[in-house]
Design the sequence.
């Protein structure tokens, strides 16, 4: 999600693509942890698939 002035500019897609590129290097998890998220689970649906991480943040 991006603010209204940035919509329809391709910014959201570029942010999304950059996050995916950095995910394999652990940078996205570190970023989310810096925002207060905690890892709760890791799953690998298939032997040749990626490891998926579920994260939660307490908003109370």
Sequence:
């Amino acid at each position: 999600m991006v603010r209204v002035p940035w919509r329809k500019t391709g910014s959201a897609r570029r942010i999304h693509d950059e996050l995916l590129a950095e995910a394999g290097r652990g940078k996205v998890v570190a970023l989310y942890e810096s925002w207060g998220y905690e890892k709760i689970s890791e799953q690998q649906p298939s032997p040749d698939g990626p490891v998926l991480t579920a994260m939660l943040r307490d908003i109370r």
The beta strands are 38-43, 52-56. The longest helix spans residues 11-23. Helices lie at 11-23, 27-34. Residues 8 and 55 are 29 Å apart (CA to CA).
